[in-house]
Amino acid sequence: QLDEETLDLGTQASDVSLVLLAADGQTGVKGARVDLLKGGEGIERAGPKASTDESGRASFTVGPDAEHKLRVYWSGGTWVSPIVSAGDEVVVGLVPSSVTFTDPSGAGIDSVRVDLLKAGGKRTGKWTRTGRTGSAGVAVFEVLPDQFEHTFRVGFNGGQMTAPADEVTVGAGESRNEPIQAIRSEVVVTKM
After folding, report:
1. Which of 88, 80, 147, 151 is nearest to 114 (CA)?
2. What is the Cα gyration radius of the chain?
3. For labeling, which of 1, 102, 117, 168 is most exposed (least CB within 10 Å)?
């Protein structure tokens, strides 16, 4: 004869979380889109999407034995986590990628428009963010590490330059700077 008892199967749902931090490693990034993906080989969505809150956190409730990946979108780039399970938290830190725009003497040029462009894939050349150089001629963008291929377009005195010639990615914990130097052109008009 069986007594009535409660059987605990350990099937309590739990959260998986992604925390997106600014390049300073401390400030949360609000408003980044995060998708919950199935844990297999592909990148198929498994459920809802969320946005990071003020602390940079987005969480999803999952079953205890399910395996997932998390995908975050920021500044035109995407980053996909390794496999995560219930109770896991993934922290992703943005990395600085910058352009230094100088005159022929090497002095920085202030207030120059710089566009961050997506490189690689079907949306190559798509504008994602715009910035301006500061007094030292530097414009800094915070991008996702390792997986976001990008270039820069600089608009100056009616012309445009794209650099570098090949797309770049910036690894976790690294930074990258692309130097671009303006060229002085002279036109000499002589009367004949």
Report:
1. 151
2. 23
3. 1
